[in-house]
Design goal:
The chain is α/β, with parallel strands linked by helices. The chain contains 16 helices and 7 strands. It has a domain of about 90 residues. It has a 7-stranded mixed sheet with strand order 3-2-1-4-5-7-6, with helices on both faces. Helix 13 crosses helix 14 and helix 13 crosses helix 15.
Length: about 425
């Protein structure tokens, strides 16, 4: 693997800035909120604590769904507390226009890529691929949910204009690869470990006479045999270790071009996050899988009934948690399995007895169920406010993770571009990393 020993890049500089802020602010975002009995940072940030408790319960989801609203409500209080403590944090990094922006290196370093102006995606209707006929598009988009199809077409439109053969990583049925093959005529190898998905993809490719073939293999195995130097490797929303493995294998194989959109950073095999780049390895942050879920935590405005069920389930789980701690005389959280929505139409007592039976928690005869149900509601209110403050940092944290991948590719000798391939309304995981050598 070629190592790039050039002076620190703009990406590495940005990473250091974000890393400094995230280290300073760990007490605000690195918490297991459902285990807390009070605001874990309340004493150190009293103005912020008052601010979150002044927000009405029915406002929380609306504020959480919009980074601008979140910043407007919480940043002034955070600034006051920092000034009172004589602390100096670069809070400009949390401003929505900065925190949400995807930074790019100058576009001319990758002349074959479509030029992307960050923040220019305001139209949810993605233009169709010019090389595909309308009737073909209907067949290729069949059985794919609307937004997923928009993601696929947008991703394809941001691939480099090259004749290199394509390796589609973690292909599933090969929806992405088949569109690349049809629209560009390039040869596509689709790597997927589930035989049934490979068979379905091959059937479609044969029917349409596409230059696409499937390899049924484990992406975690040593796949340098599939990754070649003269190749474009692509992955759209490959989760956690899957896209990390692609970057490592592609770097080792010297693959000419790599284009990925990362997703689900927490789906890793290790107990803690393993930084990729030398830049990130110098960080003091120690990140658990739970920490890595922060970028994915964003309230979606669902139906009133859906929100009611979600909040009720949270309160009931926390109410049972308080109960089981006392019954077991063990002060630690005890996770319980997923539940059916129909269980929420019953009584809290029925739910708690089911949970206790499931986790083998002995119950005494006389239990004040109303007390524990009320306790669960109060803990739910607390948990939501702890999470709300943590969410101030979710965009910055995701950018930190993205820049680790970018810096790794730079250190491996690639020229890299970090941009967006679609609007946030189509998918919040809209970052695209494009690298070539």
């Amino acid at each position: 693997m070629q190592q790039n020993n050039s002076p620190r890049s703009a990406f590495a500089t940005q990473f250091k800035q974000l890393d400094s802020l995230l280290n300073l602010s760990r007490t605000l975002w690195q918490n297991r909120s459902f285990e807390c009995r009070e605001l874990p940072w309340g004493d150190a940030f009293p103005t912020l604590a008052r601010s979150v408790w002044q927000i009405a319960d029915d406002e929380l989801d609306t504020i959480d769904a919009c980074q601008l609203s979140l910043s407007e409500r919480l940043l002034p209080s955070l600034k006051q507390d920092l000034q009172a403590a004589g602390s100096d944090w670069d809070l400009n990094l949390l401003l929505p226009e900065i925190a949400a922006a995807i930074s790019t290196e100058p576009a001319e370093i990758i002349p074959s890529l479509n030029d992307v102006s960050t923040g220019s995606f305001n139209d949810e209707s993605i233009r169709p691929l010019a090389l595909l006929q309308a009737n073909d598009m209907a067949h290729f988009s069949a059985h794919i949910k609307g937004r997923k199809w928009q993601q696929i077409t947008a991703f394809v439109e941001h691939l480099p204009d090259t004749k290199l053969p394509v390796l589609e990583w973690c292909a599933g049925k090969g929806h992405l690869g088949r569109l690349i093959a049809k629209a560009t005529g390039r040869s596509v190898v689709s790597l997927e470990w589930q035989q049934s998905l490979c068979a379905a993809g091959e059937q479609f490719a044969d029917k349409w006479q596409l230059p696409q073939r499937f390899v049924c293999a484990d992406a975690f195995a040593e796949q340098q045999g599939q990754l070649e130097e003269q190749q474009l490797a692509v992955a759209l929303h490959a989760c956690g270790d899957l896209h990390v493995t692609l970057l490592q294998h592609a770097s080792n194989a010297g693959t000419r071009q790599v284009v990925i959109s990362p997703c689900c950073y927490h789906l890793i095999q290790a107990q803690y996050y393993q930084p990729l780049s030398m830049t990130a390895k110098a960080s003091d942050l120690l990140l658990t899988r739970a920490d890595l879920q922060l970028p994915l935590q964003q309230s979606m405005i669902a139906s009133a009934k859906g929100n009611q069920y979600r909040l009720q389930e949270m309160a009931w789980r926390l109410g049972f948690d308080s109960l089981q701690r006392e019954m077991r005389q063990v002060d630690e959280y005890l996770p319980i399995p997923s539940i059916k929505q129909s269980q929420l139409n019953g009584e809290f007592e029925t739910f708690s007895r089911w949970a206790a039976d499931t986790k083998k928690v002995p119950l005494i005869d006389s239990i004040d169920w109303a007390h524990y149900q009320a306790n669960g509601r109060e803990r739910q209110r607390l948990t939501r406010r702890i999470d709300l403050v943590a969410h101030l940092f979710r965009s910055v944290f995701e950018k930190w993770l993205l820049l680790d991948r970018v810096c790794f590719l730079e250190e491996s000798g690639y020229q890299v571009k970090l941009s967006e391939f679609c609007s946030n309304s189509i998918t919040p995981r809209n970052a695209i990393i494009s690298a070539f050598k």
